[in-house]
Amino acid sequence: MKEFIRAAAQQAGHQPVRLLQILRTVQSHYRHIPAEAIDLLAGQLQMPRTQIIADIEFYSFFHLTPQGQYDILFSDSITDRMLDKQNLIDRLSGRLKVSIGQVREDGLVSLNNTSCTGLCEQGPAALVNGYPLTRLDTARLDEIADLIERQQPLSTWPEHLFAVEDNIKKPGLLLNDPIPAGAGLERLYVKGLQVSLDEIDRSGLRGRGGAGFKTAMKWRLCAEEPGEQRFVVCNADEGEPGTFKDRVLLNRYADQVFEGMTICAAIIGAEQGFLYLRVEYLFLHDKLQHILQQRRDAGLLGGNILGRGLRFDIEIRLGAGAYICGEESALIESLEGKPGIPRNRPPYPVTHGYLNQPTVVNNVETFLAAAAIMVNGDAWFCATGSEKSAGSKIISISGDCQAPGIYEYPFGTPIRQILLDCRADEVLGVQVGGPSGVFISAQELDRKLAFEDLATGGSFIIFNTSRNLFQIVQNFMHFFAHESCGFCTPCRVGTSLLKNQLDKIVDGHGSAGDVAELEALCRLVKNYSHCGLGQTAANPILSTLERYPDLYHNQLKTISYEPGFDLDAALDVARRMAHRDDSAAHLTQVEE
Fold first, then answer.
1. Is 50 exceeded by the pLDDT of residue 352?
2. For the chain, N or C: smaller number of CB within 10 Å?
């Protein structure tokens, strides 16, 4: 072990910022991170062992105890549950004779749940040793169980078990016409850096991750900030349940995404970039590394890009299972090898980002669009969209529709048209922007996809009238309670209280006072939480309570009486008993 740890640390340059990558290497070898390995790593990296333990305990894909030789994680997203996921995991549990959340006695297999795996349109889905299993049904599960019992290496498993489709159903402005590799950089040098930045500004491009901050303003602020070095970070940690567009963009259009990052680097003066890739997309890692090497070989990355003296390269850093790392400051903390706890803001990443240096953090789709604008011009981009929202939006559609997948629409498109295109019938409502977004009812389908109306990071989960609204909200609230990083009390405690209070109402034990308390809790968590997770965690309750108050009212506890029961007389008895010393016992009898 000592030699293995030494080699792993040496491969990472003995840099604490690469701690997550080192821990992944250790866990892959030992199926967990042994206590002895922690001590050895602390010595190799010259850092406190408590800091290493903090990482292991923070990220859900790290373990201090051994996992199975085949470690299976079932996606517990609402879209998987809608596809009979619970019965499927129970079936596999029975076939493999391992309880959910446990490791089998012989150590061969472990089985557990995980949050959304980014495979919502081809679920039910799971991961085995980090690699995706899609479109699971009883036949596939039986096949998987047989392979495991025969201890067949994953490399010999049938390819159809791991097949991940792109499912691009409706390409538009960006997806129809990807740019040739290097074309954006060539145009950048012809126009000049300042003119190019002005063009990004005139295009009206705003961040596609959900917040919608003006891209050119972020780049300009970073470029003007004094610092020893600058960094470009692509946020590919799309952990929002129902969102999978970045997975498709990286699989199909990674070259253009990397081009957008390089254009940004030239404008702000950065020499190092990072693609922060969620660990659930491990299957894309080798392909993306190959594309990066092709770009280096073509002179599009490295020490002298296109012979113009620009130095810039991109490194892929894998996450380790933490939804909160989608928040940009938490992502930067994770890039630095630390638990992904959001920073206090201000200062913002454009002034104090990675290693406390000026840093641009943008979404995958934003860099894709920036590269296209550099080639096609700002007027081309502005010609599409609404008055306040230029260009198009790529969205992930899943749930109750006949054609789930990736769709690209001009901003300003009515929601009704989107539902028509994906063939959704008898719609109860749509969760726009994932659980942290808003649930709109069937009476709001004339609203529009736009920053000025329905802004979204790119997720539509559709629910038809056969669905139970409370099961949907429960799934979302359990997700937030599980994913809270625990840093601040309003979120750490508040999300658990919200979950428990909602469960009480859904189980039929709630009163009108409980609904009032639930709403008050929502406001507290929303207004006092440290970061966006807590500030949006109550949205599933608030948006459904606003639209479906009658459903909540009907879910409250009701009292039924036997025929002939004299309620007035019983209440009179209760009032008289309330004045007696043993009133509590008598009131209990009366209630019964």
1. yes
2. C
